[in-house]
């Protein structure tokens, strides 16, 4: 059985009401729900929320809101792992169910990319969305002071870009694991993890008002809505 769980708390600080704020004409969470529904692989799509409006929005869009997330898992310190462990245990899911954690703030989600998750779990414990860095991180700089910057890895100064290892970062869209792995409550990287690469053009963190504006511009440029 494939299950999708969308964590969506009501108390976002930097972008108030982020999960239901209109993004290109629709509540932000609606884009993620529509993408999950369009994959056709989920027996259940569930929102984990502490917020009445978010729960009502989810129900209106045809997914489940079968429980209210407790307050201690809805503040700024609650981790995704803790929220997912709570959801899996509350729902009483079979240990072998393939469970996808889908972020509500994933309007660029490509359903086909998410849908490969269950097959990745045949040889791994977790599968997560990743994308490559646009610039070699081996040439990253840091500010030693207000008046001086320096290379973090100066030994890489003369290395050609094409000879540097390609590196990736968390794309912040979705994570797959068996229910038993989520329920264990351990860090993702305590397990064997594989990446599901996404194009950089379909990845944008949405944590600040500036991020939001950039994401809407990207979304319209890509002709997604």
Provide a compact summary of the structure.
Helices cover 27% and strands 23% of the residues. By secondary structure, the protein is of the alpha/beta class.
What is the CATH homologous superfamily assignment?
Spore Coat Polysaccharide Biosynthesis Protein SpsA, Chain A
| CATH level-3 fold name | Spore Coat Polysaccharide Biosynthesis Protein SpsA, Chain A
Q: Number of folding domains?
A: 1
Largest sheet: number of strands, sense, barrel closure? 6 strands, mixed
Q: Termini, distance in Å?
A: 31 Å
What is the typical, i.e. mean, pLDDT? 96
Structural class: alpha/beta
Helix and strand element order: EEEHEHHEHHEEEEHEH
* Order of adjacent strands in the largest pleated sheet: 4-1-5-9-6-10
Figure out the total of helices.
7
Question: Any idea what the CATH architecture is?
Answer: Alpha-Beta Complex
């Amino acid at each position: 059985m494939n299950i999708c769980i969308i964590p969506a708390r009501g108390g976002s600080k930097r972008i108030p009401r982020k999960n239901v704020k209109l993004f290109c004409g629709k509540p932000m969470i609606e884009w993620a729900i529509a993408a999950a529904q369009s994959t056709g692989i989920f027996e259940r799509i569930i929102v984990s929320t502490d917020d009445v409006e978010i729960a009502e929005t989810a129900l209106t869009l045809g997914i489940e809101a079968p429980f209210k997330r407790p307050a201690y898992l809805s503040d700024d310190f609650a981790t995704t792992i803790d929220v997912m462990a709570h959801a899996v245990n509350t729902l009483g899911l079979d240990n072998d169910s393939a469970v996808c954690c889908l972020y509500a703030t994933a309007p660029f989600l490509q359903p086909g990319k998410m849908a490969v998750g269950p097959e990745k779990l045949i040889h791994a414990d977790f599968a997560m969305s990743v994308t490559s860095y646009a610039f070699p991180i081996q040439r990253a700089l840091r500010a030693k002071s207000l008046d001086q910057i320096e290379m973090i890895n100066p030994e890489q100064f003369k290395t050609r870009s094409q000879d540097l290892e390609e590196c990736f970062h968390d794309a912040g869209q979705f994570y797959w694991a068996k229910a038993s792995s989520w329920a264990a409550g351990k860090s993702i990287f305590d397990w064997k993890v594989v990446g599901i690469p996404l194009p950089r053009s379909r990845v944008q963190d949405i944590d600040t008002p500036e991020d939001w504006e950039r994401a809407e511009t990207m979304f319209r440029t890509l002709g997604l809505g």
